[in-house]
């Protein structure tokens, strides 16, 4: 029987001692004792730091790194990243408050997303946060709120280009989208913006996410820079910031290969030279979320029962899709794939078996692993879902069946 752990490269990111997973410099079993209960999420601050350092080593020094808080808004994680990155991007007033509570100044925080409420606009304007304009109507609303407050709001135009990020898990641009202003409409929007009391900062062009194809990202960067240069001709004030989005993916499933950051860095170095020539006052930012935190996090739950049904072994745990929707298959993927899952206190384990890991919810969709090979587990053993640092707890239906939420810790 092939050990499926060998197919999941993410396990190599964590050390194993005495067959027990290590995180944050300590054994998982010790961490469980410190937390005092399961389930919980744990995020390794050292691994987050190392990921930022990897980017700094491979990307041009001129590139600004921004953290997209939606990937993991835990305040301790955000506070840690604030000391490592150059800016933060938020998508709600709640996330904005978390970002403003860090060492970063308000002009280094940007607020994106459709459907911003008036009170959110007013809070952002008052704080000095950059608002990414998603539509002409929103621009008018921002301007009016600025007049009412006696402040010229800082704004950037979020652009929906006519291209997409190929091979991306989630496409954010190209065609009809609720995000940003269609590129062909931007010249007219810039003309109107010039008549309003708005402090124009620049452009935000986000084309996709969860992409492991370096060539596709390079192509998108090329097109983004060309588009920005073209549209800058219609602006009456300099483009101070060009946010080229992110989209950097991480490997989740067997066969996934890590993204070639070095190749992306080489291409960006060439593009930076072009930008310096044609937009000399423009700084370039990469907005990354998942890539910074996903591989630094784990989700831990405990085996409550071993159940055998017609020859199939089920490990029933105290965790499930209400805590980790992504690992369960997002409420029913057409083709469900297993996240990397291990028995954390028996990572290798001499005795192995094929099992399914299920939670306590009254739905067959409550499944963290389906027919995976792992160490033979007993009651009270610890099931660990790797690659859980991004879009975990806050992207899950925690209110479903009213089970208590898991704890989060930064170690």
Automatic annotation (TrEMBL):
Residues where N6-(pyridoxal phosphate)lysine is found: 70
List of catalytic residues: 362 (proton donor)
Family matches, as PROSITE patterns: ODR_DC_2_2 (PS00879)
GO molecular function: diaminopimelate decarboxylase activity
Protein name in the entry: Diaminopimelate decarboxylase
Keyword Metal-binding: no
The entry's keywords: Pyridoxal phosphate
Family: Belongs to the Orn/Lys/Arg decarboxylase class-II family.
Domain Orn/DAP/Arg decarboxylase 2 N-terminal: 46-294
Domain of life assignment: Bacteria
Record-annotated Orn/DAP/Arg decarboxylase 2 C-terminal domain positions: 41-389
PANTHER family xrefs: DIAMINOPIMELATE DECARBOXYLASE, GROUP IV DECARBOXYLASE
Bilayer-crossing regions: none
Cofactor(s) annotated in UniProt: pyridoxal 5'-phosphate
Keyword Chloroplast: no
CDD domains per the UniProt record, alphabetical: PLPDE_III_Btrk_like (cd06839)
InterPro entries linked to this entry: Ala_racemase/Decarboxylase_C, DCO2ase_PEP1, De-COase2_C, De-COase2_CS, De-COase2_N, Orn/DAP/Arg_de-COase, PLP-binding_barrel
GO BP, sorted A to Z: lysine biosynthetic process via diaminopimelate
């Amino acid at each position: 029987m092939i050990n499926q752990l060998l197919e999941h490269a993410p396990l190599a990111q964590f050390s194993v001692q005495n067959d027990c997973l290590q995180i944050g410099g300590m054994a998982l079993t010790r961490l469980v004792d410190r937390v005092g209960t399961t389930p919980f999420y744990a995020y390794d601050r050292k691994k987050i730091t190392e990921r930022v350092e990897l980017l700094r080593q491979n990307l041009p020094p001129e590139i600004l790194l921004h953290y997209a808080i939606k990937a993991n808004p835990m305040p301790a994680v955000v506070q840690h990243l604030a000391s490592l990155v150059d800016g933060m991007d938020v998508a709600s007033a709640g996330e904005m408050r978390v970002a403003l509570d860090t060492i970063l100044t308000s002009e280094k925080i940007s607020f994106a997303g459709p459907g911003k409420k008036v009170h959110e606009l007013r809070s952002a304007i008052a704080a000095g946060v950059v608002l990414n304009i998603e539509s002409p109507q929103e621009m008018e609303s921002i301007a009016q709120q600025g007049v009412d407050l006696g402040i010229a709001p800082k704004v950037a135009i979020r652009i929906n280009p006519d291209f997409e990020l190929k091979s991306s898990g989630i496409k954010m641009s190209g065609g009809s989208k609720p995000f940003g202003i269609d590129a062909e409409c931007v010249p007219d929007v810039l003309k109107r913006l010039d008549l309003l009391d708005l402090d124009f900062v620049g452009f935000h062009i986000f084309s996709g996410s969860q992409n492991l194809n370096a060539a596709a990202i390079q192509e998108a960067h090329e097109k983004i820079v060309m588009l920005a240069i073209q549209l800058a001709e219609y602006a009456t004030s300099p483009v101070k910031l060009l946010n080229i989005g992110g989209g950097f993916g991480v490997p989740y499933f067997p066969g996934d290969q890590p993204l070639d950051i070095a190749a992306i860095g080489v291409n960006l170095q060439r593009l930076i030279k072009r930008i310096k020539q044609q937009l000399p006052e423009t700084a370039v930012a990469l907005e990354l979320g998942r890539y910074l935190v996903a591989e630094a996090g784990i989700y831990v739950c405990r085996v409550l029962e071993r159940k055998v049904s017609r020859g199939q072994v089920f490990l029933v745990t105290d965790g499930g899709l209400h805590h980790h929707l992504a690992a369960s298959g997002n409420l029913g993927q057409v083709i469900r794939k297993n996240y990397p899952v291990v028995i954390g206190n028996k990572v290798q384990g001499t005795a192995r078996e094929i099992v399914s890991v299920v939670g306590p919810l009254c739905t067959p969709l409550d499944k963290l692993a389906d027919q995976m090979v792992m160490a033979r587990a007993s009651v009270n053993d610890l099931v660990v879902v790797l690659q859980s640092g991004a879009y975990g707890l806050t992207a899950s239906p925690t209110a479903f069946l009213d089970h208590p939420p898991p704890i989060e810790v930064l170690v």
